[in-house]
Amino acid sequence: MFRFAIDRGGTFTDVYAELPDGSATVLKLLSVDPAYPDAPREGIRRVMSKFLGHELDAAQPIPTQQIESIRMGTTVATNALLERKGERMALAITAGFRDLLHIGNQARPKLFDLDISMPEVLYEQARSGSPSVVEVDERILLSEDGPLQGATGERLEIRQALDEAVLRQQLQKILDAGIRCLAVVLMHSYLHVEHEQRVGQIARDMGFTHVSLSSDVMQMAKIVPRGFTACADAYLTPAIHQYLRSFAGGFEGDLAGVRVLFMQSDGGLTPMDRFVGSRAIVSGPAAGVVGYALAAFDGTTPVVGFDMGGTSTDVSRFGGSFEHVFETTIAGTTIQVPQLDINTVAAGGGSRLFFRAGMFVVGPESAGAHPGPTCYRKGGPLTVTDANLLLGRIRPADFPNIFGENNDEPLDEAATRAAFDALTNEINAYMQAKAQETGQPLKTLTPQEVALGFVDVANEAMCRPIRSLTQARGFNISTHTLACFGGAGGQHACAIAQSLGMARIHISKYSGILSAHGLAAADVVREEQEPCASVYSEKTASTLFQHIQQLATKARDALVAEGFSEDKIIIEPFLNMRYRGTDCAQMTTIGSATRVSFTQLASLDPQAFLPTFLEQYKREFGFTIPGRDILVDDVRVRATGVTRHVASHVPKETGPAIQPSATHTIYFRDGKPTETPVYRFSDLSLSDRVQGPALMTAATSTILIEPNCQAQLTKQGDLEVIVGEGTSRRITTDLDLIHLSLFQHRFMTIAEQMGRALQRTSISTNIKERLDFSCALFSPDGGLTSNAPHIPVHLGAMQEAVRYQIGIVDNDLQAGDVLVSNHPAAGGSHLPDITVVTPFFRAGHAKPVFWVASRGHHADIGGITPGSMPPHSKSLLEEGAAIKSFKLVRGGQFQEEGITELLMEPKKYPNSSGTRNLSDNLSDLKAQVAANQRGIELLNHLMDEMGEDVVIAYMKHIQENAEVAVRDMLKAKAQAAREARGTTRLHCRDFLDDGSPIELTVDIDEATGSATFDFTGTGPQVLGNLNTPRAVAYSAVIYCLRCMIGHDVPLNQGCLVPVTINIPRGSLIWPSDDAAVVGGNVLTSQRLCDVILKAFGACADSQGCMNNVTFGNERVGYYETIAGGSGAGPGFDGRSGVHTHMTNTRITDPEVVERRYPVVVERFHLRENSGGQGLYRGGNGVVRELRFREPMVVSVLTERRSLQPNGLAGGGPGARGLNILRRADGQEINLGGKASVSVAAGDVLRLLTPGT
């Protein structure tokens, strides 16, 4: 009987088939080809035709008498999501939340994009007056004394019963518009499913053909990701079912009698009739993880999976059990279902190659399957595949003749060579111009050296997610095996392993089709899960375990019904655990991996989850929190029906020493052509040892064995490569454009890992969950070198903070010292943003060779109001603790007593308090110290690897490269201004709500690409808190410059070299040292960006505000910033409901807000028609209503409540914002832009944020 395992990828479809005679065969074909309607079916037809000895008619259904099983992983769901080609659908959501999924977490995906491009929601947008969203009149609330008990045991009340009559009218309008698919997403439906179930039943009775209930798809808290998941399910499942019907229709009897299983995102198989869209997103990559876990894991050595395909590369880790995540974002859609933890980077064989502003850039754009790389003969661009072809690392002879317009030609070497010649000429022309400008000769490059450079850059891009998956999570990367697979991975594996310090590579004999092979070896999985709200303790552990046993029984029974005997069923129990007050839940089992039979389950110790949780938490976050409650959010069981029946392959024990089948000219890292032996994988025996350099060809992949590496077979017939020291090209301090790109990646990786360490080790919501922090590296003079893309308002300001510290303590520092500061006069932004600065000393240097710093928003640092964001502060003393410079760590000792004294100092002043949360302050400061130390460790490693002088030189080169990019942009802006208006002088003036002017004149020197930013005319310092530290004004300038460059360049001090900034002392944006500034950081900073960008004509005003809201009492405290509209620009509309410019923090999910705080989120949706009119429309603001359930103090700190955001080039203004307090008795009060007020139970705060 035939057994097929098929992975339909984005570019190729891979087929692994076990044949009736016990042998196995493989096949690779294009996923999309006009020559056949369906690649998996065509693969089956070809395999059967070849084995049976006669051609099966492609126009007739394939006979199934000899087919035992078909297992598939497919990109049907992924492609439909990426291309937005799913089924037309509508959304039914609790009234007041119609645009919740549009707003999401309100953060923009790319920090510096003025044209904020985000994938649109999956439900159909309203057209011709037909609504695509049904606002369901119903409401469930958590209530301590409510009459209902939810799924977790929490008490609930029904505040609004389901209005079925209105619902039917609304649903009928959807049906009348021709929409037959519906997603139902109701607040707190994970606790109370009845309302969703009733809506679903009514919809089906009325004629909806597919209804996805969020409580069925994934019964977990957080309505936003649960809603996205339900929409994905409704959008994709009909498309999948249509494909399945089409696929089955190509076989006799529609595959009746054939066991057909599909791979889910969690790494388990499921029957075809249970395969749904929300669990199919990473179907193919999940099969690859299963494949390498079975092939490469030896029982002790953890494995990193490296799956390099045509459009992207997937990396993952296996240490004995599959690592799952429960919330990921794919194609702009957050999916909340169990998925294998797979990180994707946009660098694959089809990734495009660019030379931009002196930088070698790989991706993220891809050539795709059509037209594909240049060598595919369809007019495509240069890609990584072309680079490997030019370097001899792949041979046309090893590829089938499937290219060109008629799909019958070989790879086109000549076209690739010609394209690289043209690109090399462009690069050399740039280098010659650079040499003339600097007087320093630059070596010209050959096309092969250019191709090598792009391969190196691609490799470094692929190393970054591997480092994040291992080093950033506390694992030693050098102890891992690199499991390489995917069609393109074999050409890069040795170089990547050498870069990461990994000593061993495992390459399956099926590496080119490992996802297909993994499908053949995968098991059938059944997941059961239910929400929970229990504190984990000795008392509750037994009750929780009873829930586990109930879910295990349910999962076992389902697998038994599918034909599995109980001895073939394995149970894995989990509790989703977190500390109270945090949002970082850990899916926890007993021990590192608990896989038991159903009968063994009862013998497990219910108390054993705790030590595993504590161990996981400490490894992931660096600490535990003794004395704090541990909560259980979910109970989960994963039941596996074991089905493996992979044909074995025993390699030859011994034989004649392997001989090369050919030689081929290959370029290695020394850039010289090397005649390299070519071996066939199939000729290897266990006794052979292949020394690099060599090229190994297999049926579906090509493997490059680099010099100083050795390849040999394992007893299972797979290839093992022992990695030797790499022979890298000599790196000097002289500028090399290839190394410039590599160092940009390395510096960025260090800043990113600092950020990951800070997020891991911090304790406060602001840093750990809202991500209100930034990390960066600085040169010896304090100039910004590299930063991770965190919070824009911090970027330029941090540079000023580091330089201030250098100026006052530079001669009083030693290794082990760490400085802390938050004062606006010392480069601070506002007082809650505390900066921790660490000098990096190296042996033989009296002065620091680098500086590292982290800035985080602390929830409270004292002052006259909780949260340290007083709306009416008039002096800095009222805003909290102000620290110009203090040695937080002295000689390695944390100065807890000294910093505590500084944080409590504000209590000395009238009506003021010291910090109200000292323990969190201290914990977060220690986390910042740890993040900085992580940066120093990585810099030390980089200097050991590359040399001190080289690293310091490239720090300067990268700053100079950013300078080039800014100068090029300024020259282009000057030319455009001169041609349009006859002058290169730009000007803009705007006003704050209090009438204070912000004025900017920009004079650009077109010849040199330099500019003067003159803020003369800006109003004087104000009595309130809209004063802005000079450092924040620098942040606004550097941010706007980076935005206007329009492509990815490192953001650093070099951006400001061509710019002279003139700020009048004593003005609104250079106030006195004691001026109140809390509003300047969060409000005036936004208006500065509007003025700068409008002066350049880059875009209209954005909302000009962060809409700051704080509320609290003696028991709780909460702070949030709220989205609004983004400004339109030449060629693009503004985005609605998004954070803009100087902030990008997330907003807490409505269900989490209501669960943690005594408030009800009544509304959170877009503010219709608040965006300005024009050829390109401005974005809409949002409406947010909070109903308070107990007395509190509420503060709002906002702008654009008096003056509207302005349009550009004749475009209309956006709507001004409005803050309304509606008392419980119905009285409405306009709070104005800045207010602090006491509220009672039943009062409602209604914020309408500005449109643009």
Automatic annotation (TrEMBL):
One of its GO terms (cellular component) is cytosol. Belongs to the oxoprolinase family. This is 5-oxoprolinase. Residues 226-527 form the Hydantoinase A/oxoprolinase domain. One of its GO terms (biological process) is glutathione metabolic process. One of its GO terms (molecular function) is 5-oxoprolinase (ATP-hydrolyzing) activity. InterPro entries: ACX-like_C, Hydant_A_N, Hydantoinase_A, Hydantoinase_B, Oxoprolinase-like. Residues 3-206 form the Hydantoinase/oxoprolinase N-terminal domain. Residues 539-714 form the Acetophenone carboxylase-like C-terminal domain. Residues 736-1251 form the Hydantoinase B/oxoprolinase domain. It comes from Monosiga brevicollis. It comes from the Eukaryota.
